[in-house]
C-alpha cells in the first residue's frame, strides 16, 4: 500500500505534524500505526520522521476501513498486500462478506429502536403504568427481532 511511484517521489517529504494536519489524525495515532505495523517505519532526517504522500493515502485507507467497521488486524492484513497481489481484493471481499451480517443486525436493531423512540415521542399516556410501550419490555433487547420485524409497536393511547 505504501510503495512510492514517480509522482510520490516528486513531492517533498512531510513531517508528522504535516501528515497529521492533512489526514486529521493525531501524531500519536500515526506513531501507534507504525508501532503495530499498519504503517511502515518512515525515513528519518535529522532524527525526525519524514513521510511521503503514500502515507497520506494509507491513512485514508485505514480511516475508511475503520469507519466500515474493520478491526486494526483486518486492516493490517489488507495493507500487507503488495501492489501486484491479486488476492488482496479477494481478502477484502472475504472481510466484507463476514462484516455484512453484523452490520445488517446493527441496522435492524437501530430501526427497531428508532420506531420505539418515535412512538415514545408521540406518547400521550397519563403515566408509564398505562403506556403500552412498556407492555413488552424485552422487545428492544431481543436478538430474534427478525421474527418480529413486521410487528408494529402499539400506538400510545390518547387522553
Q: Per the principal axes of the C-alpha atoms, what is the gross shape?
A: elongated
- Spans of 5+ residues with little confidence (pLDDT < 50)? 143-159
Q: State the CATH class of the largest domain.
A: Mainly Alpha
User: In whole angstroms, how far apart are the ends?
Assistant: 63 Å
Structural category = mainly alpha
Structure commentary:
- With 159 residues, the protein is mostly helical.
- The protein has helices at 6-10, 16-23, 27-35, 53-67, 72-79, 87-121, 145-148, and strands at residues 43-45, 48-50.
- It has a two-stranded antiparallel sheet.
- β1 and β2 (48-50) form a beta hairpin.
Break the fold down into its secondary structure elements and pairings.
Layout: H1 6-10, H2 16-23, H3 27-35, E1 43-45, E2 48-50, H4 53-67, H5 72-79, H6 87-121, H7 145-148
Antiparallel strand pairs: 1-2
Helix pairs in contact: 5-6
Summarize the structure.
By secondary structure, the chain is mainly alpha-helical. It contains 7 helices and 2 strands.
Amino acid at each position: 500500500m505504501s510503495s512510492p511511484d514517480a509522482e510520490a517521489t516528486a513531492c517533498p517529504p512531510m513531517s508528522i505534524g504535516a501528515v497529521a494536519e492533512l489526514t486529521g489524525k493525531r501524531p500519536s495515532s500515526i506513531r501507534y500505526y507504525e508501532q503495530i505495523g499498519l504503517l511502515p517505519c518512515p525515513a528519518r532526517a535529522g532524527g525526525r520522521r519524514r513521510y511521503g504522500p503514500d502515507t497520506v493515502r494509507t491513512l485514508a485507507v485505514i480511516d475508511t476501513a475503520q469507519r466500515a467497521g474493520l478491526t486494526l488486524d483486518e486492516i493490517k492484513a489488507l495493507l500487507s498486500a503488495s501492489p501486484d497481489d491479486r488476492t488482496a481484493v479477494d481478502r477484502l471481499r472475504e472481510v466484507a462478506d463476514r462484516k455484512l451480517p453484523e452490520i445488517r443486525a446493527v441496522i435492524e436493531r437501530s430501526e427497531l429502536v428508532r420506531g420505539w423512540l418515535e412512538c415514545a415521542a408521540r406518547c400521550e399516556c397519563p403515566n408509564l403504568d398505562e403506556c403500552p410501550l412498556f407492555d413488552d419490555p424485552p422487545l428492544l433487547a431481543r436478538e430474534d427481532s427478525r421474527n418480529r420485524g413486521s410487528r408494529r409497536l402499539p400506538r400510545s393511547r390518547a387522553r
